[in-house]
Amino acid sequence: MQIGNYNQKTKVTSGYDPLIDMPDVYNPAIAYGQSKTANIWMANEIERRYGDQGLHAISIHPGNIMTEGWANLDPRVMELFKDLMQDPALQKAFKSVPQGAATQVLAAVGKDYEGVGGK
Length: 119
Fold this sequence. Notes:
By secondary structure, this protein is mainly α.
């Protein structure tokens, strides 16, 4: 991905990835990845600026969770995932919403994470 293409003003191409090779400039799959990268950068910046004052941030990935977000995906992305989402093995890998929330709660209050940030 081009550095500085945050608003997807130019088309990102890969030559092999069907999620990237969509015909228009804006690509929801790339936007999702950019938002997750921004979460990591934010956690690191909070730690850099405020960690020595006791404010810490951790960027976590709670796992694959079947949320309402899936229902609102771009139809082109849903078409690409349609067969994959029917796979029983993949369906077993998805967590429930409470299971996904537990990951975030653990990161927020777990003693192992006390005083830890920027990870």
